[in-house]
Write a structure and sequence with these properties.
- It is a single chain.
- With about 100 residues, this protein is mostly helical.
- The chain is flat, with a radius of gyration of 33 Å.
- The protein has helices at about 1-45, 60-65.
- It contains two helices and no strands.
- The protein has a domain at about 1-70.
Length: about 100
């Protein structure tokens, strides 16, 4: 019984893989046919055949990574939220000296 179930499971998985492969190939053929009809129409009307491309602006990605989102300047907190604080020198954990003026 265990070997029959294993064989049936393998057959079902192989069939699912073949159906997935066939669907991917069918989608690719539809896109190819659409592009060929578009290229044929462009040739018949005398227009140049342009490929489908994706424009990638790498400089904009680098700016976004290094400067953060916004207007192109470095990301920093708002000046209204900055609190001025005095730095106190700690000499010992048990004794804190007040700042000298």
């Amino acid at each position: 019984m265990k070997t029959i179930f294993g064989l049936v499971l393998r057959l079902v998985l192989m069939l699912a893989g073949l159906v997935f492969l066939a669907s991917v190939l069918a989608a690719a053929l539809v896109v190819l046919a659409f592009w060929l009809v578009r290229a044929l129409w462009a040739r018949l009307t005398g227009q140049p055949v342009s490929p489908w491309t994706f424009q990638v602006n790498r400089q904009a990605m680098m700016d976004r990574f290094y400067r953060g989102p916004g207007s192109g300047r470095a990301a920093r907190p708002d000046d209204a939220n900055v609190i001025d604080a005095e730095i106190v020198e700690v000499v010992d954990v048990k004794e804190i000296k007040p700042p000298e003026r």
